[in-house]
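Whiteboard transcription, Tuesday session. T.W. wrote the structure tokens on the left side:
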């Protein structure tokens, strides 16, 4: 039987943690008191359990992030396939404008181009702004470097093929011509 405690320090109906532990302890006849080895093993097992629980929570969090990224970027392959179509439409419009013929055909191509850009924007695939911006190898692909008096060195002079990004990932970098600064004399 557990030793009696001084109940004067406790108000009616309050149990301390020790009282709860004593009430939940079951004694088996013939059982020996806990040995220091058993207590140490129990402590080690408890620590191992806590580590495993933490690892499982980390795994759940990592898996949730990966699933969210997969959902967010699922349209990436489709966007990559659509961009050459957009480029060809741009080229067709440019050629029709230069030729000055087939005004109805040109209007149709402009409408298709607008629809494609609307679809891309609705799916968070937006053009990368490059004109006159500082060259950034994460978003731009330099195909040429030319001297220029109008554009500072290291900035994009001209975009030869527009780049696009889906959310924060580059679908296709912008192909650009970069200024090398004023020509050497």
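and on the right, the sequence the group agreed on:
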């Amino acid at each position: 039987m557990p030793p009696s405690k001084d109940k004067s320090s406790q108000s009616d109906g309050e149990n301390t943690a020790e009282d709860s532990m004593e009430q939940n302890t079951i004694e088996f006849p013939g059982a020996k008191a806990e040995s220091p080895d058993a207590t140490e093993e129990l402590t080690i097992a408890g620590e191992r359990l806590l580590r495993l629980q933490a690892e499982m929570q980390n795994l759940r969090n990592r898996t949730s992030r990966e699933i969210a990224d997969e959902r967010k970027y699922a349209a990436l392959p489709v966007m990559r396939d659509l961009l050459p179509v957009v480029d060809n439409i741009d080229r067709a419009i440019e050629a029709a404008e230069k030729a000055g013929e087939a005004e109805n055909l040109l209007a149709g191509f402009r409408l298709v181009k607008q629809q494609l850009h609307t679809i891309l924007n609705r799916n968070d695939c937006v053009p990368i702004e490059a004109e006159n911006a500082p060259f950034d190898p994460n978003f731009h692909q330099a195909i040429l470097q030319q001297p220029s008096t109008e554009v500072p060195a290291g900035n994009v002079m001209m975009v030869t093929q527009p780049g696009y990004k889906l959310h924060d990932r580059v679908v296709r970098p912008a192909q650009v011509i970069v200024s090398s600064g004023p020509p050497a004399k």
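Someone added at the bottom: Residues 4-13 have pLDDT under 50 and may be disordered.
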